[in-house]
Write a structure and sequence with these properties.
8 helices, single chain
C-alpha cells in the first residue's frame, strides 16, 4: 500500500490587482510616520524584492469556504471518487470566513463543516476539521491525512488550503501588496500504485519566533479603525527562513533515503521570490551543489502569496499543464516545503 495524491483542483480568482493599482494608497511606516518616497518608488522596490507584479482577489460575494468548495469539487472530480467515501475533510486556513468589509472573522462552524455542507455529503462518518498552522497548513494537512491512512483510521482524505488574505490587509502597510486569495485541494488515499509520500518533516519555533507574524493595528493613527490586520517583521522572517528552512528540507530528504540528484522539482511556499531562491540555493549548498535550473516553479509574479493555497494551486497548475516549461512526470521525486506563522516549517518528499 502507498499513500498518494490521486486528484487535484484549484480556484484562482479572476479579479487581478496590479502593482500600479497601489499608486493611490497612502503607505505609512509602522509607527505612522510618512515614508520618504513616492508610491511609484515604493512599488518598484517591492517588485524588485518580491517578484510580484500582480495578485488575485476573490469576488466580494464569496468567502474562504466558498473558494475551498470550488477547489474541492475539482479535486474530487479529478480523483474520480464518490465524495460519500471520504473519511476526512481537512481544511487549512488562517482567518476563517471574512466577509467583504466585515470587521470580524467567522470561524463557527469550521470551514471544513461548511465545505462538507456545500459538497452535500450525507455520510456523518466523514469528519471535517480545520488546521490553523500558518502558511504551512496545507502541507501539515497532507501529513495528517497520511498518518490517518497509515494507521488504518482512514482510506480517503480531502485536504484543502484556502485563504482570502485580501480581507485582512492594512491598506496603509506596504506589506499588504504581498497577499492574495486562492484555494487548492487534493484527494489523498491509499492505492496499489508505487510512490506517494516517502518522508515528512515538521517543526515549530516559538521561543523567540512565535510573534514574527501577528495581528496588529493599522499603520494610520489618524483614523478610528478597531480592526486588526495581518502584520509581520519581514527582516526577521527572512533571516529565520533562510537559516532554518534549508536544514528542515535536508532532514526530510535524508530521512527519505533519496539522492538529491534525483529530486526533480521543489514546490516551495512563495512569499518572496528572493527569499525562496536563497532558501533553495542554501539547501543545495548543504550538499555542496549548485541549485539546478528550473527546479523551483514560481507563480508568485502573477498570483502573489495566497498562504496555504500557494503550493496546492501550484501543484495543480503544473499537473494540468497551465505553467509554461514546467512538468511533473510519473515517477518524479518532488518536494513540498513551507514556512510561516507560528513560526512553522514543514516538508514532504513525494514520488509522483
Amino acid at each position: 500500500m502507498t499513500i498518494k495524491i490521486t486528484g487535484t483542483g484549484s480556484y484562482i480568482p479572476n479579479n487581478v490587482e496590479k502593482n500600479e493599482d497601489f499608486y493611490q494608497h497612502q503607505f505609512l511606516n509602522s509607527d505612522g510616520s510618512t515614508i520618504n518616497a513616492s508610491n511609484e518608488v515604493i512599488v518598484e522596490k517591492f517588485k524588485a524584492i518580491t517578484g510580484i507584479d500582480e495578485r488575485r482577489y476573490a469576488k466580494k460575494t464569496v468567502n474562504t469556504s466558498d473558494i475551498a468548495f470550488f477547489a474541492a469539487e475539482k479535486a474530487i472530480e479529478n480523483a474520480n471518487i464518490n465524495r460519500e467515501d471520504l473519511d476526512y475533510i481537512i481544511v487549512a486556513h488562517n482567518y476563517g470566513d471574512v466577509k467583504h468589509d466585515a470587521e470580524q472573522s467567522d470561524t463557527v462552524p469550521s470551514i471544513a463543516s461548511r465545505v462538507k455542507h456545500l459538497l452535500k455529503i450525507k455520510n456523518s462518518k466523514c469528519v471535517g476539521y480545520d488546521v490553523l498552522f500558518g502558511c504551512p497548513g496545507w502541507i501539515e494537512g497532507v501529513i495528517q491525512a497520511n498518518a490517518f491512512i497509515k494507521s488504518g483510521i482512514a482510506k480517503k482524505c480531502l485536504v484543502i488550503g484556502a485563504e482570502t488574505l485580501s480581507r485582512v490587509i492594512d491598506p496603509h502597510d506596504r506589506d499588504s501588496m504581498i497577499y492574495s486569495d486562492g484555494a487548492g485541494a487534493v484527494v489523498v488515499e491509499s492505492t496499489n500504485d508505487e510512490g506517494g509520500i516517502i518522508a515528512h518533516e515538521t517543526a515549530t519555533f516559538a521561543l523567540d519566533e512565535a510573534h514574527f507574524i501577528f495581528f496588529g493595528e493599522t499603520n494610520n493613527p489618524d483614523i478610528n479603525d478597531k480592526r486588526r490586520y495581518i502584520k509581520m517583521y519581514g527582516r526577521k522572517i527572512y533571516e529565520f527562513a533562510i537559516s532554518n528552512v534549508p536544514k528542515a528540507m535536508k532532514s526530510c530528504l535524508d530521512k527519505s533515503g533519496i539522492d538529491i540528484k534525483n529530486l526533480k522539482k521543489i514546490l516551495i511556499h512563495q512569499a518572496n521570490e528572493k527569499m525562496d531562491e536563497a532558501i533553495v540555493k542554501r539547501f543545495y549548498k548543504l550538499y555542496n551543489m549548485e541549485m539546478p535550473e528550473n527546479i523551483m516553479p514560481m507563480t508568485i509574479g502573477k498570483l502573489g502569496n495566497s498562504s496555504v493555497a500557494t503550493i496546492p494551486t501550484l501543484y495543480d497548475m503544473i499537473l494540468k499543464g497551465e505553467l509554461d516549461n514546467q512538468h511533473i512526470n510519473k515517477g518524479d521525486i518532488i518536494m513540498f516545503a513551507s514556512v510561516g506563522a507560528g513560526m512553522n516549517i514543514n516538508a514532504v518528499v513525494y514520488k509522483h
